[in-house]
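G., before I forget:
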Amino acid sequence: MGSSFKQHSVIPGFGMTLGFTVFYLSLLVLIPLSALFLKTATMGWGAFWTTVTDPRVVASYKLTFGAALAGATINAVFGFVVAWTLVRYSFPGKGLIDAMVDLPFALPTAVSGIALTAIYSRNGWVGQWLEPLGIHVAFTPLGVGVALTFIGLPFVVRTLQPAIADLDPEYEEAAASLGAGRVQVFLRVICPGLLPALLTGFALAFARALGEYGSVVFISGNMPMRTEITPLLIISKLEQYDYAGATAIAVVMLLASFTILLGINTLQWRHVRRIHGRG
Amino acid sequence: MSIEVRNISKTFSGFAALTDVSLVVPDGELVALLGPSGSGKTTLLRIIAGLEEPDPGPDGRILFNDEDVAGRGVGQRQVGFVFQHYALFRHMSVFENIAFGLRVRPRGSRPSKAAIDAKVRELLQLIQLDNVGNRFPSQLSGGQRQRVALARALAIEPRVLLLDEPFGALDARVRQDLRQWLRRLHDEIHVTSVFVTHDQEEALEVADRVVVMNEGRIEQNGTPEEVFHHPATEFVMQFLGHVNLFRGRIEADHAVFGPWALQNTDPAKDGQEARMFVRPYDLDINTTEDGRPAVTATVTRIQAAGPTAKFELLDENSQPIRVEMPHDRFRAMNVAKGDRVFVSLKDARVYVEDYVI
């Protein structure tokens, strides 16, 4: 890169498209979010601190971030398997399975929440078999995890699919010809090659799970200190006309998610930059 | 380490890529598998490597030094395989790429860290890239990448080295340099090597032996001189360099092509159609008739750049003829485009159809 900010390019429209991008992002993201901060600022530090460190709120942070992280991690592992199967093998019904992956995207989240609750409740299809084993899913933190895993799956699968399709089998053949076993090929060649896409999928699934509301409120039972997620607390504060309190919690969540996502993206940029030899 | 392939066939969903191929590669030789795309040359190479399984057959064998390796996977055959598009691991430095084959060995036979370091440095020196160990493949040129890929394959001290179109993705100049370098390298390390190419010039220049393949079969296996000067089949003749085709027929003990009559060794084929192949430099051009049998033709293009002067002619039946001659003779003759010339024959190969008309 030269020192000049704007470089002459044969592809026209840099100024216009950048202008549009900034305008559009401001309208859609920046302005609503700054309103969040402005509203929060009306309550003063003391009140802010009391609101966001209320034990009930802190418990909800733990559940939300913990369950979202668990869900995204589970998706990273099993989404990988699903994506790998869909790209590398052909079998009857593949198209159907491929389409099914998108269902958590398409279904209204409330519907999936009710469906999951029905299945995992004490006398549901799956729940009745788990119950004798002492595993309670519905109305427990585990249920929250299940819901957040459900809604995050497509993100991992859809980001990994093109990356796996791009991964030339030649790399595996080269590694095998050099004497690497299957596990070594997987750990040393395939995984690092797919890491950027996997991180992106993980980050998307994680971000989606943090903001999820609809599917969780049904299966969690919303018991204070136990199965309340942060978005639910924000909603209940809004219902009590405590707008400043709601935005205060929202600000904390926003900053925390932004920091985590920025961290994941930085990791990914670093990896990609190394592969493409810049910097 | 000699390689022997016996009665190997390979079918891909109904398409016969190889049909009953047998081949011996003597120890320490550099052999080229030459053929057009779809001739089965890469499939044969991959079967030798163990990257592809041949069709099961009672007589099919793959032997390294008389030891059957057909049952072993690619990792157990100890072959160095070099891919056309390098297949270097993008997330590893050049050093790590070369060290890969040593690092993945089971703990018992894995060399010490110092030994791996020394081995990689030695290989970097061998490929004349001492200073790029810390770089990543994306920071190297195509020629450098291919040399790194070769070093990576050599690191495991392979019993045989197999190269799939090793220069195919490189531009003309780098190709030329790299193939001469490969020849010198082979003279240094003497590992039995097989490389696949569709470039006849490359095969003739680099290899000790050239195996010409077509449609899943071996057409000819010989030294570069043999395949070039004594092609066994029409295909080999046509594939190795430009060639002029003349149609004629056998009349008694002669093969007759217009004004030219050649002694035919097999009079039993009287009346059959014959085809004559003539290399452009085996034709001669004169501006005046000198008594030799000649075809008259018109010059349509002269291309005097390059090692020889090349002529494109049209004979009286509007058949194109290519002729090449040395520059000094071209200058002495003073021919121009549009001139009428007399084409005479210095050498030719005649092939007689196997069927009776």
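The first helix of chain B runs from residue 41 to 49. The radius of gyration of chain B is 25 Å.

More on Monday.
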